[in-house]
## 1
Amino acid sequence: MNISVLNTGPFRINTWIVELCKNKVLIFDPAACSVTNDSLEIVNFLKANNLEPAAFLLTHGHFDHITGTGICKSFFPDAPLALHKEDLPMVGASAADAQKNQLEAMGLGMIVPALKGLPEPDAAFSGEPLLSSVIEAKDPDVAAALSAWKVLHTPGHTEGSVCYYNEKEKILITGDTIFYHSWGRTDFPGGSERKMVKSLERIYSSLPDDVLVYPGHDYAGFALTEKGRKKAKIKIERHKTISNFLEKVLLIPSDDIEKTSKQIEYSMPTDVLEKFIKFLTFMETCSCKEPKWVKSYKHFINNGELQDKCKNCINTNKSGSIECECKCC
């Protein structure tokens, strides 16, 4: 299967052009626009290679992935534009208003004009359909080729983030859900660390190692190897550990756990966060009967290390009760 990439739009994202059948192709995340002086890059590539788009497919609705939808639809109006319905408010006629504040906050107000007057999607799907049920194809060969592609709903980066999976060809178009040994950020409006963790857990636990990943940015064509799984597992376990700590120890209300967990993960320096997680993981398995985790944490911060037992229950005296040896307790 031929896969071509064009780096287009404000952030030079990976716009994927994937062979479907005959001269038909799927275009993922068209971003070429006038603001970046590459409006016709996708159109010219298609014409130069005698290719026709069967559809323009969005992995999510963020500005840097949608700015080329207008110019592409003007040249190929019969090719449907599709995305998950949860990201509908971010695209089409409402795109500029929906993303203006975020862009201006990032110092990228000059991109707002590229979001004005964008076309409305032709299809907004929910669930995890096959592309053959999203895109109507009169040609039976095209319909059959579309049926090989399945939508995987992977919220986290945005509520409507999806990956497009071809099991036979072992290809996964991930947008901003998975990058090379990394994943998309969740601190933009609509992002969710909790949902991102679930999406990563699902992908890494259910898809084979040899599936090749084509993300929305940077290095592509890498496999879902053991190293990538290990890094994802660390993130998954880290998030679960922090959430459990907030819920069971600090008694944070469930509605606030997502926000507080995200603040901890994004505000702590990496080395401090690693120590903090190590401490929480250790305390989860501690057999100490008394909730003296505050004193143990103080000792941990002062000494920067953990022994094989909780600092509150290093020794057991002759009477069988816990006797703390920690001097800072």
## 2
Amino acid sequence: MKKLGQVLLIERALMVPDPDQPRQHFDPTQMKDLAASMRAAGQQTPVTLRHMPPGSSHPYKIIDGERRWRAAAMINLTHLKAWVRDDVGSDDGAYVASVVSNFARADHTPLEIAVMIARLRKQPRIAKLSLTDQAATIASILGRSMAWVYQYEMLLKVDPAVVELMSTSRPLSERLSPLLAPMLVAFEPTLQRKYAAEIIAQRMPLRQARIFLDAQAHGRNLRVGSRNRNYPQRRHERFVSSLSVIVREAEDILTMPHPLFREMVLSRPQGDRQMALARIDAAMEHLKELRQAMLPMLKAPIQGPLKSHVRTS
């Protein structure tokens, strides 16, 4: 087993957050809850750090765990458990590692996700690819489909006031779906704000909101959204992305330091451990069935829409 770092107890003052990390919004209520949890039960998950070059203001920079770092300050906790990774050296490598660690959590704002995707496109190993291959690589990293990547990228073209209406900090009844971004960008900012307000005021379901925007665009001779109905291709993208998530998550667990893995498992009651093992067994059976189903198709010719890889907008 290759050693990728070690878990240490490190003084909080020796760590510095990464100003370029994907998460920029820290919900005050959630931070209070986290601080209360750490005060009551201690720090359950180490922060992830990387070494900084000699002469830096701090010897360690945070890859993952700025929320825990902030919460520690709220309860005057001076030292934190930390996993110091030896396999991350460059800022680009640290950013990708931070994206993978942070994205598993569901409370990113839509704009944070859009900015994250834009910056991933600029990573050296991704930037050299074609635009389509860039989207495919990012989709694989994030465990999503290429269509999902394109939809969130559209947010960078949506009026900032409308993007704010999509914030996860807003109540669901007052929140606009980010999936409407590809349609909204067809309109000028004033109309984007007007239609977004109408959708929220009337509490339109997603399907109704899409019909509404399509009707508004038709009346103005505008084309909205994507006309690509290549559903088999999209399903395949989602299929491959799902498999990538399984592989990546398994690799993350297998490279976890043994003390961390042991602590994670033993912190749960026996019933939870048995359930986890049962899910592993079930996953192996399902993957075996998928493999058996695909084997006869390996040399079959391409059929129908799967021949097309052109994305229209």
## 3
Amino acid sequence: MTTGTEEITTATVSAQVGAGSGICVPSLADILAANPDEFIAAYTDIAAVNLACAVGLPKSEDIDFPKYLSLLDTMAAAVRRQTEKSWRLFKIKPAEFDHSENVFRVLTMEHVLRVQFKIKYNSHVWEKTKNREDWNTADSSEIFIHGILNENNRTGTCSSLPVVSVAVGRRLGYPLQWRCACQITRSFVGPMAKRYSTSSTRSAGVS
């Protein structure tokens, strides 16, 4: 766990995460000074980079790198199990998923994140943006993913929900990119959130 005023270092956080994890966590100095191509090659976990950027900002005091990165691994394992369990749904009703295995996999992932892990869009921010009101915040948990990974919150916004989805998807080998951020975020609100939660889906074994 970090403190709000602590200087994050690569060595410190790598020791927290564990040498066997294979995850490198950058320091702020690494982020600011890095060559983009070299940075991407060295720091492959988008979640670790996101958390590193949040350290030292308001409401970041409870960031726990090992716990949060482990939680993302747990989420990925749950998605894998659910995808295997409900694969027959895609075979029975492929049209509901645009005849695309990729669509089915992503919708299954979002369903698990919403239903099993209770991740949702921040209702306060959603109301503000829906009504085209200005939204300003000094709370980093509304911007970065620790707001979602904190067990007392589990809410995110357009800047954090896609990061969690991409981080979980990449753990499953899905080649997700940031440019799909808006589409992924929309699955947590509105019609897309209901698309996968139909009676036919539940009857096919999706819990």
## 4
Amino acid sequence: MSEIYSILDLSKIVKSARENSLLGLYEKALSKYNIAIPIVQSRISELINGDTLLQEKWKSIEKSLKGEVEEIKEIMKSCEVFKNIYNDSGQKRKEQKKEEYDSPPKDPYSAKIEKDADMLRRLQGIEPEKKPRKQDKNGLDADEILNNVKMVQNITNQVENKINNIQKKEKEKEQPKEKPKPIYKKIKDLHIYTHVGFDGEQDKENNQDNYFIQKNFAGHKDYIYMSVCDGHGVNGHHVSNFIKTILPVDMSENLKHRNILTETEKTHEIIKETFIIANDKLVENQNIDSIFSGTTCVSVIYTPEKLICPNIGDSRAVLARYDNDKKKYIAIELTRDHKPTELDEKRRILENDGRIQPFFEDGEFVGPERIWIKEEEVPGLAMTRSFGDRVAATVGVISEPEIKEFDLDINDKYMIIASDGIWEFISSQECIDIISSFYEKNDIKGCCQFLYEESSKRWIKEEEVIDDTTLILVFFE
């Protein structure tokens, strides 16, 4: 954006001003700077008005330049202060000269006495008073002018350096960076664990969770599409089973002729379209009532170079990366929970005439934020994206996935994909910490069993029930 540089590009003025008077430098530099700012700000507002991408780009540029611009402003303030000092000093000198001019001339006899007094002081070893040096039209003597010129040169050099640094940084941003060589992370072990929930008295009738592992995904022997679906509502198990049946097959076929490593935009477009079509097929299915039933779908498309992670709902995928400096495994969330507390998700629900609040029982709100029809006490859904949930869909609940991508790193060690049976009472980082000891002794099955038992204890303690729990655990080589 070349308009930005009309604020900052003072170098021409700085160079030409060195040949002019000191006052000319200040006036030209300050004038250019002060006039340019409102014009450019207005121009930038026109350019980015209504364009979200440009607004984000400008915010990024503005943030990166903010420190540099503030320093230049400080330099210009110094110029202005110095100009005032210069003028004040000049005025005082002129007044002094005027006083000397207005004073009556000394008579010759007085001059002789003064000369003799100087001679006497020299004999006594006292230095005589120095005669005033030659002054310019503003009353500054030669030394003062020299010092001021050096000060101005210092200031202008600072301005030039700042401008050059900013332009250099911008050029570096524009130049394409060399892509690091891809890391190939192979899967050492993979294990799936699922367990039906407990209703307080006995195990539930149905496990509403489902999962799928699609190997040789999109025609590639090294690619795997894995997912956990957490059903909810009376027919949640039917909904999650339907998605398990059609989604991996359709997705694999639709991406068969695409290079998912390089065709990012087209790949994302196809993934979103496949999710939405799967939801349409579900809604049209006469054998499944999805009015108040639905499912989450957290997915990871594994390639040895990167992970592609489409997600709807509040199930979650988390990667463990070893930090050599901290000597510990760090949790990297591959997906985001789609809950009504997320600002962008909440905005969409409210814009579609939905209502967000917890259950209201016995005169008080209980539990998490939920989604409701504006004037009715249905459906009470605790997530903002899902398959099915036809009533919730009328107030902004969508089946379009949010997609994130992550390049695999040499320090990536393991990954977990799980329903909220795990995540309700165990944080992402705590989960990664629990898995670490099992990873180091290569006990993937024991790890899955321990995670289920630990989460179940917390469910009983907090809720006296246990949610259905499903997890896919992956150990990398």
